[in-house]
UniProtKB/TrEMBL annotation:
It is a multi-pass membrane protein. This is Ion transport domain-containing protein. The chain crosses the membrane at residues 7-24, 36-54, 66-89, 125-153. One of its GO terms (cellular component) is voltage-gated sodium channel complex. The lineage of its organism: Eukaryota, Metazoa, Ecdysozoa, Arthropoda, Hexapoda. Its main location: membrane. Residues 6-185 form the Ion transport domain. Keywords: Membrane, Transmembrane, Transmembrane helix. One of its GO terms (biological process) is membrane depolarization during action potential. It comes from the Eukaryota.
Length: 185
């Protein structure tokens, strides 16, 4: 099959190289780096789109029966939307909400998850994490209850404390919300 061996190895190498380029992004990059990384992002999105096309041609109607292929396809669509949104913002000054672009960029991080297909150990760990999510929710609820109790207790004991040092106008025990904030601090 064309979906194993050198083809898959080449795709995994591309995913790894894409991870490396994602690690180089930072805030206030010089424009030359931004253009270079944008070009690399376009290249990787094209490679992923070509991979999806090759698999769709090879597997036909069975392509969408495999969940990993469906995940890959959603990532490809997300990458295309990200590139289109970036071009609309960059060239035409189209009033596109910046928050939407940040949400679409999450798809770029999803590409890294494609490596999980190859590593059975990571797949087992991810499955264990998914199975333990209900227990983590219970732990989170218990921690929230503890914070709630101590916030109420702090309001009762320290509500009128003088504001100096660590206790200021923002972080104090005067209100429930500010009590929770100071407990997280």
């Amino acid at each position: 099959s064309c979906l194993t061996g050198p083809f898959e190895i080449a795709i995994f190498v591309m995913i790894f190289l894409n991870m490396v380029t994602l690690a180089f992004e930072r805030h206030n990059m010089p424009s030359i780096y931004h253009h270079m990384l944008s070009g690399m992002n376009f290249f990787f999105a094209t490679v992923y789109a070509l991979e999806a096309i090759v698999k769709i041609i090879g597997l036909r109607q069975y392509y969408f029966t495999v969940l990993w292929n469906l995940f890959d396809f959603i990532l490809v669509i997300g990458s295309i939307v990200e590139l289109a949104a970036g071009n609309l913002i960059g060239e035409d000054g189209f009033p596109f909400p910046p928050t939407m672009l940040r949400i679409v960029r999450v798809f770029r991080i999803g590409r890294v998850l494609r490596l999980i297909k190859a590593a059975k150990g990571i797949r087992k760990l991810l499955f264990a994490l998914i199975v333990s999510l209900p227990a983590l929710f219970n732990i989170g609820a218990l921690l929230s209850l503890i914070v709630f109790i101590y916030a109420i207790l702090g309001m009762g004991l320290f509500a009128n404390t003088a504001k100096n040092g660590a206790i200021d106008e923002m972080f104090n025990f005067d209100t429930f919300l500010s009590s929770c904030l100071i407990l997280f601090r």
